[in-house]
Structures are given as C-alpha cells and as structure tokens.
Amino acid sequence: MKRVLIGMSGGVDSSVAAYLLKERGFEVWGCTLRLYDNEMLGLELPESGCCSVSDILDAKSVCRSIGIEHITLDMCADFEKYVIKPFAQSYARGETPNPCIECNRHLKFSLMLKKALNLGFDYVATGHYADIRFNNSTGRYELIRPADRHKDQTYVLYSLTQTELSHTLFPLYSLEKAEIRKIAEESGFVNSHKPDSQDICFVADGSYTSFLEKYTGKSEEKGDFIDKYGNVLGQHQGISHYTIGQRRGLGIALGRPVFVTAVDPVRNTVTLGDEEDLFRDSVIIKDINLISIDALDRPVKVTAKTRYTHRETPAAVFPLENGTARVEFESPVRAPAPGQACVFYDGDKVVGGGTIII
Question: Which of 22, 169, 271, 343 is such that its CA lies 20 to 30 A from the CA of 330?
Fold first, then answer.
C-alpha cells in the first residue's frame, strides 16, 4: 500500500483531498505545517487563518473523522527564512512579491517532501486545484490545469521540479468547489462551510505596511510622487504602500484617475501616470523553472499571464544570457510588476515560469 503525507491547512479543500486519497486505498497521514510563531517574530499574528492554532485543531478533527493519523511539523524558522524575510526584502526593493509561490517552492513541495520521504512516505499531497500527468513521449511530468478553471492554482505551482511532481498528488483536479463542499458536508467535517482563505497568512489585518514596520522595526521614509517626466506631484508615505497598477489609497488628488506606474527604491520615488502607461509589450524574467520542456534553447510560443487573477495572452518566450528570458506579448498586458511571476502555458499544460525583473 502506497503511503501519502497530505498537507492539511484546516480548510475544506485539503480535508476532502485527504478523504479521497483514503477512499482510493492509500495509507494517508494528515500533516499541518506550523509556519509562524508570534513570540519568535515579535508580532501579533492571527490565531485564526492559514496554519494557525485553530486550523491545526480543525485538521486534527477531520483526521479523526476520516480515521487517519495527524502530525504537526514545525517549520517556523524555515518559513521566516524562505518566505517572510524575502517578502520584506522584496518590498524594500520596490517589488510586489508573491509569498504563496515561495511557500510552495521551499516548504510545501521541498522541505515537506524531504521529511515525508525520510519518514517512509511515497508521496505528498495537497488540496490544490491542479493535475499531474506523465508524458511518455517526452519522459517528463506535466502540471495540468484542473476541471474548475475558476479555481486553477497552477500559477502558484509553476516552481515544482520534476522530482517533486513525481512524488506529488492533487486529488481535487476533477472536482468543482460545490462538489467538494458537498462531500465535506456528507462526511460531517467541522470545516465544511469554512470560507476560503483570501489574505496572506502572516499579515493579520491585510496591511502589508503595518506588518513590514513591525517586522523590520523601521518606519518608512516619505518621498516624492513624480510623473513620467520627473515633475514632483506630491509626497508619498513610503514605497511599500504602493504597487504597480494601484489606483486607490494614493492620498493625492490630481483631478483625474492616476495609477502607480513605477516604484524606485533608490530615489525613493513613486511614479504616477494614466492607465495607458501601465501596459507593457514584454517582461524580462529570472529564476526560470521549466516543466513540460527540459530546456529553453530557442523561442517558444505560449500563452502567458503575469498575475494570478489575469487571463493569459498569446506570447513568445526568448532565451537570454545568464538564465534569463524575455517574454513578448502579442497584445500589451496591464501592470506587470517586478517580483510577480510570469507563468506560461501550452494549452492546459504549464510550460514553466519565472520571476519578473522588469
């Protein structure tokens, strides 16, 4: 019997995923990652929400209902090293980071998998909406979009390696959310009506700037709002308050809608412009991970998107020096931001992706 260690956040998706794996005949153990510690970080982090104490209790309750074992793994130090600290550093560089991608890259499908294999498990699993298939013609594992496109999470999973994909299961790939809640209700799970988590788990009130000031112990310097010609328009409250594409909460009135078009941490300026100034024909990416192909040694036609919520657009990926690439879009895309991921597809397959530099 194959053994699976499934990451259980305390939410309904991972709970139903654990139930389905057991129904398929696997020996299943639930595993909740303890990711942050208030005392260690000196912060008042939420005690409800992703991977909090209440979620651990919900996960344990579901495991009892299913009749499987549950363990908790302490990854607080790793979470700070690989997710929280880079998150703060990224904002200091004027970027817009995606900590969920880094959590998946370093913790859920790297460190958790290593621990699982050391404990004698064959696979790890999660409640992500995606599928994994092996392509016999290429000899590669592929990451495939799920049946419910509205819940497609392949964008935040593009960093999975071939080794990780070969030891990972996504049981929810063929189900829609309504079906998952129905299974949870019929199984009597305590979290069957629990709402989906929306915010970053370690930001208690959704205020990134408040979190960053507490975490770093530093107050941000105010600086100049400027236009694309360098003319000073007013004063901003610190660069971490702003991200490319932002319109609301700027605290400045110019008589017309304006948007953040650039953030410069060296000059401590935030550039404002019209919506048309947000559109880009191309981006440069680094830290590229390839899934359906083994090398980027020639231009590849794809569809690509630069934010989780964006629709993809036809594009071509051109290899550059030093492991970087340029992604050229057939139609300009709105507000690509340094620090975000650009993920590219071939139909339902994820070709790969990387982090936007510019």
Answer: 271
Query: Do 80 and 142 have their domain in common?
Result: yes
The answer to whether residues 286 and 266 belong to one domain is: no
Tokens matching residue 273: 């412009």
User: SS3 sequence, 282-340?
Assistant: EEEEEEEEECCCCCCCCCEEEEEECCCCCCCEEEEEEECHHHCEEEEEEEEEECCCCCC
Summarize pLDDT for 250-296 with one digit per residue, the tens. 999 999 999 999 999 999 999 999 999 999 999 999 999 999 999 99
To 10 degrees, what angle do helices 12-23 and 177-186 make? Answer: 70
Is 215 part of any domain? no
Across 117-134, b (16+ Cβ under 10 Å) vs e yields eeeebebbbbbbbbbbee
168-169 and 123-125 strand pairing: parallel
Cα(310)–Cα(334) distance, rounded to whole angstroms? Answer: 9
Residue 34, in any domain of the structure:
yes
CATH classification at residue 292 = 2.40.30.10
- Given the residues 31, 63, 201, 342, select the one marked as catalytic: 201
The enclosing H or E element of 33 equals strand 27-34
Annotated catalytic residue 103: yes
* pTM of the shown model: 0.92
Angle formed at CA 92 by CA 231 and CA 96, multiple of 5 degrees: 85
Tell me if 199 is assigned to some domain: no
Using alpha carbons, list the distances in angstroms from residue 63 to 31, 59, 71, 85, 133: 10, 6, 10, 32, 28
Residues 175, 293, single domain; the answer is no
CA distance 298 to 319: 6
8-51 confidence digits (pLDDT tens):
988 999 999 999 999 999 999 999 999 887 654 555 555 555 55
Domain count along the chain: 3
- Is 201 labeled as catalytic in the residue annotation? yes
> Catalytic one among 31, 51, 103, 342?
103
Q: Are residues 155 and 251 in the same domain?
A: no
**Alpha carbons 193 and 324: distance in angstroms, whole number:** 44
**Alpha carbon distance 164, 25 (integer Å):** 22
Residue 167 domain boundaries:
3-186
